[in-house]
Amino acid sequence: MPTVFHFADFASAADLNPSAQIQNSEQLLQAVAAIAEAAGKAILQIYQQDVAVSYKADESPLTAADLAAHQLILQELTALTPAIPQLSEEAADIDWNVRQLWHYYWLIDPLDGTKEFIKRNGEFTVNIALVCAGEPVLGVIHAPVLQKTYSAVLGVGAFLRDNTQTPSTVRLINAKTPSANEIVRIVGSRSHAQPGMDALLNQFPQHELIAVGSSLKFCLIAEGSAHLYPRLGPTMLWDTGAGHVIAIAAGASVHYDGIEGPAYQRAELRNGNFTVSSLA
């Protein structure tokens, strides 16, 4: 039987024994990473097939892979943490009057980068974050094609498991500040145009622009492969929750324009512009 985490006990343990809290959070992180990787396997089974694409009301694409990953994650998280509600991209019609009462909740994007999935460029992810009091505190981003899993717990650290190596390796990752003469590496969306990006790039005479899909942009900042991710366009909470905590735990900063109070405890599910940075 898998471990079932009851968060009334989990929270009280922090007051009595901080080291036990860290141990519990690391165990939970491993369990969530396993769920994300299982969802990745379900996605890859469909990735090998001819995939039918439908479109939601906002004209974003939807495939059988999105739904298969969604169902698997919800089922496994319910078994793991029965008392914690879930907000998934594929089940987001939950009234604010209900959501505002949540102290903890799971924030899920079962397949982030559906456009990349359809293009078959491999740059899509599974995103799962645990939000507490309006802020992400635990997060997992799994890239099925790349065979990499990024994960983090605030106060513990950010990690990368690389399954392309045998045996697979797990290492601590840290964001890096560029030196005075180093080229600033800036990541941007592969599939979404961002008006205003040219003006921002002009602030950095020596820069390299890296185009990449999905939440992998957060991961590049967290592992030190890039220094700045400016998002000049709309995203949703489930697009950013896991990446947010991974970037913060790795030592980067995340700033949302125009948001007062907890960034993940609000009626509006849409984010405005934001910046992820390791610049000094």
Walkthrough of the structure:
The protein has 280 residues and is an alpha+beta fold. The chain has two domains: 7-172, 2-Layer Sandwich (Fructose-1,6-Bisphosphatase, Chain A, domain 1); 184-277, D-Maltodextrin-Binding Protein, domain 2. Helices cover 33% and strands 28% of the residues. It has a seven-stranded mixed β-sheet with strand order 3-4-5-6-7-8-9, with helices on both faces. Helix 1 packs antiparallel against helix 2, helix 2 (18-47) packs antiparallel against helix 3 (64-80) and helix 7 (216-222) runs parallel beside helix 8 (237-249). The protein is globular, with a radius of gyration of 18 Å. It starts with 6 loop residues before the first helix and ends with a strand. Mean pLDDT is 88; it is low at 8-18.
> What is the CATH superfamily classification of the largest domain?
Fructose-1,6-Bisphosphatase, subunit A, domain 1
Query: Which blocks of ≥5 consecutive residues have pLDDT under 50?
Result: 8-18
Helix run count: 8
| Strand order of the biggest β-sheet | 3-4-5-6-7-8-9
Considering DSSP H and I runs of 4 or more, what fraction of the residues is helical? 25-40%
Q: Looking at the chains present, what oligomeric state does this protein adopt?
A: single chain
Structural class: alpha+beta
The assigned CATH architecture of the largest domain is 2-Layer Sandwich
* Sequence of secondary-structure elements: HHEEHEHEHEEEEEEHEHEEHEEE
Q: What does the largest sheet look like?
A: 7 strands, mixed
CATH topology of the largest domain: Fructose-1,6-Bisphosphatase, Chain A, domain 1
Number of strands: 16
Mean pLDDT equals: 88
Number of domains: 2
